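If your schedule permits, I should be very grateful for your opinion on a structural question. Thank you for your consideration; the sequence and its tokens are set out here:

===
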Amino acid sequence: MSNMTSKLRLYGVVNDSIVDGPGLRYAVFTQGCLHHCEGCHNEKSHDLQGGYMSDINTLLKEIDANLLLDGVTISGGEPFLQSQSLIAFVEEVKKRNLHVMIYSGYTFEEILSLNGYAKKLLSLCDTLVDGRFQKDLKSLSLLYKGSSNQRIIDIQKSLKKNQVILQNINDYGEFI
């Protein structure tokens, strides 16, 4: 890990999020998005040159310092614009036995057709919330997603079956 010098362009991080997935999560918000969904709650994360650069090791030290974490959530911006750098980060997170949830404006099917790095990043994660945010389908009652068109996908089961398998969620908002 000491020779890892990958950098990410970030909008920000939250060390103890309880809204970006089940349990206590370290949330990473990438900078840069081409979707420009109307009503996006992270509109300032769209500028490809905005935000700040962060070393992956810095993020991992913060994760290691928080022994209460249940997982890491990667959101944006659009994380799949930084797939190559995120692969190295997620590989390290998985070594810590943490659940990885990732958000994307792309659908599962679109991610599979993007490029090899996008497919690799997807394959390393556990749960995907996919699809563009649609303001007319917004609901505050939705768990872990902003609009009803978005899907919460069990990535590993979906890749194995070669079709989208939705994530099972219990009454407490936990993935099962």
